[in-house]
Design a protein that fits this description.
The N and C termini lie far apart (about 35 Å). The longest helix has 29 residues. Helices cover about 35% and strands about 25% of the residues. The protein has a four-stranded antiparallel sheet, with helices on one face. The protein is α+β, with helices and mostly antiparallel strands.
Length: about 80
């Protein structure tokens, strides 16, 4: 079973961009600025885009929470290594 969200990047071609992949329905990829999730954001729908703007808003908020938690976890991991 896949996790609900995955992080992806393409640092050689788009070093300032991060991708958050939503693996459950509706499936999508959020492409955004690595420093600011809401900056230059583009949603790539892998499934049909939902009609509900409220659902889309909630999915994006969930993606942002996931991204922030992952960054915090990475920072804690690097702090432990020092």
């Amino acid at each position: 079973m896949l996790p609900k969200f995955l992080l992806a990047d393409n640092s050689q071609e788009t070093p300032d961009t991060i991708f958050v992949v939503h693996t459950e329905e509706p499936k999508f990829i959020v492409e955004s600025d690595i420093e600011d999730f809401w900056s230059n954001q583009e949603i790539h729908w892998l499934s049909e885009e939902p009609d509900s703007k409220e659902l889309i808003k909630q999915l994006l908020e969930d993606a942002e929470e996931y991204l922030e938690a992952e960054f915090e976890s990475q920072e804690n991991l690097f702090d432990e290594e020092d």
